[in-house]
Amino acid sequence: MTECIVCESEIEQGVIGPEAGYGGESYAPAQTEHAGEIYYFCCSEHKESFESDPEQYVSS
Ligand SMILES: [Zn+2]
User: For residue 42, how far is its CA from the centre of ligand 1 (angstroms)?
Assistant: First the structure.
């Protein structure tokens, strides 16, 4: 299960299937890479929130 790291809501995957040209790979509305990790988001707004302050959301 994939969760939006900002709001912790479950991200519905597979929304866009192979017929849409994604090759059947898992799909999330938005994603980004930070410190070598891929993070997924429920929406582009939360992606922007994360990118503005990644350390707020990444616990390490
Ligand atoms: Zn979210």
Answer: 4
Ligand 1 ion: Cβ-proximal residues, 5 Å cutoff = 4, 6-7, 42, 46
Condensed to tens digits (0 to 9), the pLDDT of residues 30-41 reads 889 999 998 988
pTM value is 0.71
Which DSSP string corresponds to the chain? --B-TTT-PBPPP-SS-GGGTSTT----SEEEEETTEEEEESSHHHHHHHHH-GGGT---
**Can you read off the two tokens belonging to residue 50?**
């994360």
